[in-house]
Amino acid sequence: QVQLVESGGGLVQPGGSLRLSCASSGSFSVINTMGWYRQAPGKQRELVATITERGITNYADSVKGRFTISRDNAKNTVYLQMNSLKPEDTAVYLCNWDYIRLGVALTSWGQGTQVTVSS
User: Of 29, 32, 51, 66, which residue is 20 to 30 A from 107 by alpha carbon distance?
Assistant: First the structure.
């Protein structure tokens, strides 16, 4: 499996914005779906947003209209632009990629980046 590295988390006030990035220097035949998930303390991991190789996106209802997922295939990077942040968005955000490498379908997770929304 390849290593995914997230960045861009931090502390932000309610109503603020953050942009998360998830990149890998690994080699891939195809990167299929790239996604962002989050896990708050004491809660289950939940889907935030996904984007397919063709750019089809899917969002959790709780972030629709506020978050935007995008990808740069040339840079093997996926982004999550988060606007109008709320305290309930506080969580560790993890990226997940489904990809094909050497003819094998694999999935990898990043280590996570903390997002804290607080005044």
Answer: 66
